[in-house]
Protein 1
Amino acid sequence: MQAIPAPMPLPFTEERVEQARKIVTEHQRGSVSLVQRKLRCRYFEAATLLEELERRGVVGPMNERGGRPVLVAV
């Protein structure tokens, strides 16, 4: 019987989520590339941050162009 691996720790802190939230609300654009450039982070962190922002209702689901609608105002 194989052991179940422990879940990966999240690649961000609450402060990092807040930084990403400010970026997407100020620019009114929820894209991985924007978050990557502004936070100087890797794709995985930026994508995971946007998924967390979607979970919190800040951005909507990804559209066909890869961006996400921003659901909150500045």
Note: The chain is about 45% helix and 0% strand.
Protein 2
Amino acid sequence: MKPRLGTILLVIALLVAVVAAANFYVGRNSERAQRVLVEEQLDAVTQAKAALEREKADLTKAKTTLEEQVAQLTKQAKEVAEQFAQEKRARETLTTELAQVRRDATQVKGQLDNERKEKAATADELTKAKQSYQALSNELTTLRQAKEALEKRVKEMLAARAKEAEQIVVTPASAAPKPAAAASPAPASPAPASAKTSEGKVLVVNRDLGFVVLNLGSKDGVRRGTRFALSRNNKPVATVEVDKVYDNMCAANLLEEEKKGEVKEGDIARLLS
């Protein structure tokens, strides 16, 4: 029994040794495989690390480049912003100046329109004034011609009727002068018209040309520029100033500023001192 037990134990010991050797071999192979695997992994990690370092270097370089570009772009952006601000200020200034120019242009246009209107109005007034002047000139020429014709006709008429007028108007120098407060003389008894007499009467009235003919002339001491006050029933009517003087009569212009009523034939003419 003891030899079998020893054999068994030996067999067991051999089995244990074989198992241990197998385990050692297997473990050694496994360790070697793991070592190879670890070495491969280490190589892979080393290569990956190198790749990462290269990539990091590239990224660092790219980052530096990007930072430089960002700095440059930031500088350019500041410059552009400054230029934009300047252009904005310039545009605002130009807008203000343009608005002022527009206001000035509108004002100048308004002044120009007013000047044109004033010029047109002045031209119209000048045309009207020329027309009025021409009309007045024509009227004055007509009046002068009418006055000259009337004076000529009156002169001829009075010259033809000189004796008759003297008989009607002139009284002897010895006749007593009529008192100033007396009534208007009747046609049959006219006031004396001698050099010492300052009273006569109106023979003719020309209302269109504004003059009268008195029965006093150079023989009565009447001169050009002599003034007479005309009255009717002792009431003042008008004042006349002698313009033309003849022997027994004179033509006198009516002074409108002294006119107080309508002059009629037969009105009394008294010399103004």
Note: Residues 66 and 72 are 9 Å apart (CA to CA).
